[in-house]
Amino acid sequence: MAGVRFWREFDTRYRMLATKCSSCGLVYFPPRTVCRKCRRSSVGKMEIVPLPTKGNIVSYTIVHAGQKGFEAQVPYVMAIVELEGGVTILGQVVDCDPEDVDIGMEVKPVFRRVREEGEAGVIHYGYKFAPPCFPTCKDEDPTSGED
What is the pTM of this model? Predict the structure, then answer.
């Protein structure tokens, strides 16, 4: 089980971490070891930084014919999300109806199950995006017990 522990403790696997070039300030996700702008002069100067926890949808599509392994999830939304600070990430939007998704909608990164692998049942987790009002997007108090 040492391999499983290694992946669970690998910082960038389960936390949304990026790299930032200390020379020019560009931020990269997924993390990179070399800045595309500064190139060789950035080697050893890339610092690990956490990504912002808020963003907005800049483009999206509703998937009606899922790829192999995702057929049962259709329809689902894939969106390009621009996080505060300008980093853009492609990800699935969850916890709301596909028809409610719109350009400019505020979302936050959440950690969710992505897929289950074969007969071994290995579960892969990753980031997705959800409206910040999860678990409910209704105006009423979710603890009131009213429907």
Answer: 0.75
